[in-house]
Amino acid sequence: MARRWIGISMLVLLMAVCLTGCGMGIGRGIIKEFEENKGGILEELTELKDGLVKELEGSGDDIRQEIHELVDVLLEEINDWSGAAATRQITGDESLVGERERGADDYVGAYRADYSDFSGEEYIFGGTALKRMSGSELEAVYSLTVTSGTAALFWLDGDEEKIIASASEEGVYGFRLHAGGNFLVLRGDNFTGSLVLAVK
Predict the structure, then answer these.
(1) Which residues does residue 118 pair with via DSSP β-bridges, in sequence order?
(2) Element of type H or E holding 123
(3) pLDDT tier for residue 17 given thresholds of 50, 70 and 90
(4) Rounded-to-integer distance, Cα 106 and Cα 124, Å
(5) Distance (Å, rounded) from C-alpha 193 to C-alpha 171?
(6) Ranges of H-type helices in the chain
(7) Distance between CA 5 and CA 166 in Å, rounded?
(8) How many other CB atoms are there within 10 angstroms of residue 55's CB atom?
(9) What is the DSSP letter of 93?
């Protein structure tokens, strides 16, 4: 029941923004404001849930459970909305050079590619969720081979590029997801070589 009302409320808000005379500007502003404040929103919702639960100490277990469920549904709706509104997203399967097998979600799976004079970027795994429901600690097992040109495998943490490998190398890279954009990206410039990647 709560999920339906939250979804309807968000739909009405989006329709109102789209139907106003300056809807595009307002829509962009809302999305920009939301992107810039995801961490704060998540923190506020968590504090709200904890505060309500504490306030209702002594009330029935049913009420506490309903509050937990309501806030979890709200977080899930915000995750879905932020993913749809994201300016970055993983590269579609048809646009990838190699073969990707997705795991439980877009953050995990396996990828294998052989590149020939590749220039560009592939967003292989990742997303923009405020909170990944399956946990935030991940590990990438990789093998990058650079035969010619240049290549870099990196973790894009928000707007910060954290280089994992930029030469022929294999290893394991552990990282923690934060609220907002988190992507594993391969960037090439006339790159010939290969990448084998598994994220779990």
Answers:
(1) 191
(2) strand 109-127
(3) very low
(4) 9
(5) 17
(6) 2-19, 23-36, 38-55, 61-85
(7) 48
(8) 10
(9) G
User: Does the predicted model carry a pTM greater than 0.85?
Assistant: no
The structure tokens listed for 31 are 């999305």
Query: What CA–CA distance (Å, rounded) separates 48 from 117?
Result: 52
Query: How far is Cα 199 from Cα 75, in angstroms, rounded to an integer?
Result: 24
**Span 74-124, pLDDT tens digits:** 666 665 555 544 456 899 999 999 999 999 999 999 999 999 999 999 999
User: Among 25-39, 115-129, 163-177, which is the least confidently predicted range?
Assistant: 25-39
Q: 182-199 and 99-102: which strand pairing?
A: unpaired
User: Per-residue confidence at 197, pLDDT binned at 50, 70, 90?
Assistant: very high
Residue 25: C-alpha distances to residues 19, 33, 53, 78, 89 (Å): 12, 12, 38, 21, 22
Tokens 């923190």, residue located: 43
Q: Which pair of tokens denotes residue 7?
A: 């979804």
C-alpha dihedral (7, 21, 36, 181), degrees to nearest 10: 60
